[in-house]
Design a protein that fits this description.
13 helices, mainly beta, 8-stranded mixed beta sheet, 57 strands, 7-stranded antiparallel beta sheet, globular
Length: 891
């Protein structure tokens, strides 16, 4: 792919047409592309359980990370270069992390063609928080820190043994590379003593108690291969199974008292391997096979599959694992020229062949849920080829499992885009399956105490609850219809929901969201829903912040921390709701966007959060008194002060009596008496993101706002209000009327206005330039330009037909091609390409799984045939947008 002439043309086009505005602040400099390298983000923020320590990673645009450690009491911090993946020990005594070799060193060695296995590796770092002692151990492959018990650390170190071969010349060379599995090392963090277990393939650590299950491939007769249990305090290695065979899928309960795994002890060469489920408790001398080939409860011909590892319920009562029907095996006796390669597409297939093809690898590995009750020894085959999906509680403690069949509605989902299904309830104690409801359009889930199955049904704009006790379905939000449904839905489809905050303890109530408020809803449908926040009157949206990741239900006597969003000025904050008496207190508000997912210490009031604005990077802040006071603890990008930046505002204008809004970004030192070049960049609605910090980076699909404002550009991002059937016209009216309003203000150079958008935005850009010549140039990324050919196309990433998108979702035509061909023609830029006079840059990559890349080709060849100025970029083997760093930088 020749690129030099293309890049010269593009640079000439954009810089000639736009020019570069003069600096508005001489003491600060404008941003360059190279500056993206030094712009940092903050990743992986963690807080020690006692709230005394905070750690986070500083990730530069390019280069090595730095791990920061902050002491809350002394307000001091320290740095560990090239460090990442940190974890505090449960007892707050140590910070454990990984140190990697310098990326520049690795890159240079790769240039020298050094083999991957010979490159320098990672090191394990153990930092004692009380003494400051740092221990570094080289050759790290991976480590684990127990979640809820202390005193030990488990890690694997590299091993790289080679078998020497003496050739006839007498010299030695590496023959293959006979590599053992890495040893597992259990380190006592107090005494610093270590116990090494050789050649460990995989292992699992119990969550809340001392216990490890591991699979070793052994060394020799002195240490046999097999599955073992290990306890750290006793340094005891107990064999669970050392029979010859292969083992995988290790599982251990949270308390470490039960273990399970899959084993294949068959010595034949059977192509379908006969795995068995092994189970162990403390009362056993070794693990026992509780289910194997030919078990009576398994459907005839089925087998236990290795493709679904066993998983214990949190309470240890159930083991979830997978079974599968016999696979279709190819006849290995056939020669290549005897194998027929053909795809059969049948009009009555419930799933389009292309979807089947995308899923073929997953389907070959598909398993069907089975459950073993460790108390009773009962097995239940929960899923089958009719009920192929299921859901249960996250801890798998429930005796009930919801199963689904999509089959009756699978074919029509190709053009409706819906995932309608019939839902059933399986009782693990009795094995009985009961129909819950037919044609549910939504996810049916179990309540925390397993008394109800609940879901939002979009066609009814309401929430429903099925009582497990009386098997009745109740519409629990009939009086809230059109409140709990998305009020801003502008697509020809059923409106989605706003979600829920959670359930009260013992399933006593459910907290449901509308656009603004939290409503306490009775799952029995007896008591009327109660508004807990009354945010609609003041234009405030309230959302519950779950500070405890382990929380499963909400204590009705608890004080809830809420995130607040003020629609009038797009600001945010925090509030506290006392559920017991309904008292609502506002804790913090500002012209910022605040962190909607702050991090809290498990055993202290320490909360780490961020705030940001267009000018302010979201640095970390800490509060210990619920936001009465807060301290900034990070400074990730101090260099930002040396650059010209910009300011953002909501811009409003009148469009023939209709009030419209958008975001307007002006450079520093803005002078309304001057003329500025402007880029119009948009998608659908963006004004709620007024206070979002836009990180300087080589983006995959959009312009970088601070980069352009730093260089003297104005940026305009209008909100689009869509009319069903006329998405192109809707975009045109919003964008052009807003641009004209800004030009009339007097500070925009109307000869230097550009237009940019990607995907849906790319389509709208292509449509707009068929209707106006007001833009000096445009960039249209991954656009659909021919809605007729696209309608009959495939979303190759999923294999789905694209029909549903035009009839019901983002394209918003609201009709089939045969019902309203005029809409498909009217909204397709390709039919008006002869009217385009705007130079356009088209980006469309050849591995685009969302928009078929032949749409970009149709656009380009039309422009080329018509003699219109156009350039096309496609990055080889990239998806809907450039992902590789070098390609993002280039774009």
């Amino acid at each position: 792919m020749a690129i030099s002439r293309t890049h010269i043309c593009i640079l000439t086009l954009f810089y000639f047409l736009f020019g570069v505005a003069l600096l508005t602040a001489q003491e600060r400099r404008q941003m360059e592309h190279e500056d993206f390298r030094i712009w940092n983000t903050i990743e992986n923020t963690i807080v020690s359980n006692d709230g005394k320590w905070v750690s986070w990673e500083i990730e530069p645009g390019e280069g090595d990370p730095t791990l920061k450690l902050y002491h809350v009491g002394t307000h001091t911090d320290q740095s560990f270069h090239r460090a990442s993946s940190a974890a505090f020990t449960h007892d707050n005594r140590f910070l454990v992390f990984k140190i990697s070799p310098a990326s520049d060193t690795i890159r240079e060695l790769r240039r020298q063609k050094v083999e991957k296995e010979d490159l320098p590796g990672d090191s394990l770092a153990i930092y004692a928080l009380s003494t400051g002692q740092l221990t570094i151990i080289p050759g790290l492959k991976g480590f684990s820190v127990p979640v809820e018990w202390s005193g030990y650390l488990v890690y694997q170190a590299e091993v790289n043994q080679m078998t020497a071969d003496t050739s006839s010349s007498g010299s030695k060379k590496a023959k293959g590379k006979k590599k053992q599995d890495d040893p597992l090392i259990v380190r006592n963090l107090g005494s610093e003593s270590e116990d090494t277990i050789a050649s460990v393939k995989t292992y699992r650590i119990a969550k809340s108690a001392d216990g490890i299950i591991l699979h070793t491939t052994g060394v020799d007769s002195s240490f046999a291969a097999g599955v073992y249990k290990y306890t750290c305090r006793d340094k005891a290695l107990f064999p669970l199974s050392t029979k010859s065979g292969t083992y995988e899928g290790l599982a251990i309960t949270e308390n470490g008292e039960q273990m399970a795994f899959l084993g294949d002890l068959d010595t034949s060469k059977a192509r379908v391997r006969p795995h068995s489920l092994f189970y162990f408790t403390e009362a056993m001398d070794s693990a026992e096979v509780v289910a194997g080939p030919g078990a009576s409860w398994i459907p005839k011909g089925w087998h236990i599959s290795k493709n679904n590892s066993p998983a214990f319920s949190e309470n240890g009562k159930y083991i979830h694992f997978g079974t599968a029907p016999p696979p279709v095996l190819q006849d290995t006796s056939l020669l290549d020229d005897e194998i027929v390669e053909v795809e059969v597409w049948h009009y009555d297939d419930p799933v389009l062949y292309t979807q089947q093809n995308v899923r073929v690898k997953d389907e070959r590995k598909r398993t069907y849920l089975s459950v073993f009750d460790t108390d009773t020894g009962q097995f239940r085959q929960v899923e089958n080829e009719g009920l192929r999906e299921s859901s249960t509680d996250r801890e798998r403690n429930s005796r009930y499992i919801v199963t689904y069949t999509l089959e009756p509605y699978a074919k029509e989902s190709s053009w409706t885009g819906l995932r309608e299904r019939d839902a059933y309830l399986t009782d693990l104690e009795t094995g009985k399956k009961s129909l819950i409801a037919k044609r549910i359009e939504g996810n049916a889930r179990l309540s925390p105490s397993f008394k109800y199955v609940y879901w939002y049904n979009a066609p009814d704009s309401s929430w429903f609850a099925y009582s497990v006790t009386d098997k009745k379905i109740r519409d629990i939000t009939p009086s809230l219809k059109m409140l709990v449904a998305d009020e801003l839905n502008d697509r020809p489809m059923y409106a989605g929901d706003y979600g829920i905050a959670g359930w009260l303890d013992d399933d006593a109530g459910i907290l449901v969201y509308d656009r603004y408020d939290l409503w306490l809803v009775d799952p029995e449908g007896i008591r009327m829903p109660h508004n807990l926040t009354n945010g609609r009157e003041e234009g405030i949206t309230y959302r519950y912040i779950r500070l405890d990741s382990e929380e499963r239900s909400i204590d009705p006597e608890k004080n809830l921390l809420l995130y607040t969003f003020y629609h009038s000025d797009k600001s945010a904050g925090y509030a506290e709701l006392k559920l017991e008496n309904g008292r609502l207190s506002h804790l913090l508000k500002g012209q910022y966007r605040y962190d909607s997912r702050p991090v809290k210490a498990k055993e202290a009031n320490t909360i780490v959060f961020t705030r940001e604005s267009f000018r302010e990077f979201p640095d970390l802040r800490i509060t210990r008194d619920l936001f009465k006071s807060a301290r900034k603890i990070s400074d990730a990008n101090p260099h930002q002060a040396g650059y010209t930046w910009g300011n953002i505002e909501v811009y409003s204008w009148d469009d023939h009596g209709k009030k419209r809004t958008g975001l307007l970004v002006k450079p520093d030192g803005f002078d309304p008496a001057k003329k500025y070049p402007m880029i119009v960049n948009f998608y659908e609605r963006s004004t709620d993101g007024l206070h979002t910090y836009r990180h300087p980076q080589p983006h995959r699909s959009t312009i970088n706002y601070p980069f352009y404002t730093s260089r003297g550009y104005v940026i305009f991002n209008p909100d689009v209000d869509y009319e069903i059937g006329y998405p192109g016209k809707s975009a045109y009216e919003a964008v052009v009327s807003g641009t004209e309003a800004l030009v009339s203000e007097g500070f925009i150079d109307e000869q230097r206005i550009g237009l940019q958008g990607h995907s849906w935005g790319g389509y709208q850009v292509a449509h707009i330039i068929t209707k106006t010549d007001m833009f000096a140039c445009a960039e249209s990324g991954a656009p659909v330009v021919n809605m007729i050919s696209a309608y009959g196309g495939i979303r190759w990433g999923t294999g789905m037909s694209r029909m549903f998108q035009y009839e019901h979702t983002q394209s918003r035509l609201g009709a089939t091609l045969w019902e309203r061909p005029d809409l498909y023609i009217q909204n397709s830029p390709i039919f008006n390409a002869d009217k385009i006079n705007t130079p356009v840059l088209i980006l469309h990559n050849d591995n685009d799984g969302a928009v078929p890349w032949y749409q970009g080709i149709e656009f380009f060849v039309a422009m080329r045939r018509l003699g219109k100025p156009a350039w096309m970029l496609y990055y080889n083997d990239e998806p809907h947008w450039p992902l590789k760093l070098q390609n993002r930088k280039d774009f």
